[in-house]
Design goal:
Bound molecules: zinc ion
Distance between the termini: 5 Å
Oligomer: single chain
Number of strands: 8
CATH class: Mainly Beta
CATH superfamily: YjbQ-like
Number of helices: 3
Strand order of the largest sheet: 1-8-3-5-6
Helix content: 25-40%
CATH architecture: Sandwich
Strand content: 35-45%
Number of domains: 1
Length: about 140
């Protein structure tokens, strides 16, 4: 069995942003040389997500509106977590959108459904953060 590990770095311009990281994960898969197995992709931070959905800007706008209804960023003092920090909302948004995805690898490719793409979801950005890519198989 082969094993591959890589950290991807992300630095968003905005506090909240969605980035399609599928091309980066594909690069990792090619580098790994693994043809059959699984790839795990997870955010290494507790105010960011990795999830699978459609690469459609309208949907990403809808995520923003929906998440702001569930856990509005402001006022900052509505969250007990916010004392020295202002990211209480970001922790809650990450919890809803998830930490990681697991994708099957078949014939050297990500075995996706038609519209599936892997996204990094940032909820407290404008600083360097990491995503872990771990691939196992043969
Ligand atoms: Zn925090």
């Amino acid at each position: 069995m082969k094993s591959y590990r890589k950290e991807l770095w992300v630095n968003t311009n905005k506090r909240r942003e969605y980035i399609n990281i599928t091309p980066d994960v594909n690069k990792c898969l090619v580098e790994s040389g693994i043809k059959e197995g699984f790839v795990l992709v997870n955010a290494m931070h507790i105010t960011a997500s990795v999830f699978i959905n459609d690469d459609e800007p309208g949907l990403h706008h809808d995520f923003e509106i929906w998440l702001e209804k569930l856990a509005p960023e402001k006022p900052h003092n509505q969250y007990k977590h916010n004392g020295y920090e202002d990211n209480g909302d970001a922790h809650l948004k990450r919890q809803v959108m998830g930490r990681e995805v697991l994708v099957a690898i078949t014939d050297g490719k990500l075995d996706f459904g038609t519209w599936e793409q892997i996204f990094y979801g940032e909820y407290d950005g404008m600083r360097k953060k990491r995503v872990l890519v771990k691939i196992i198989g043969e």
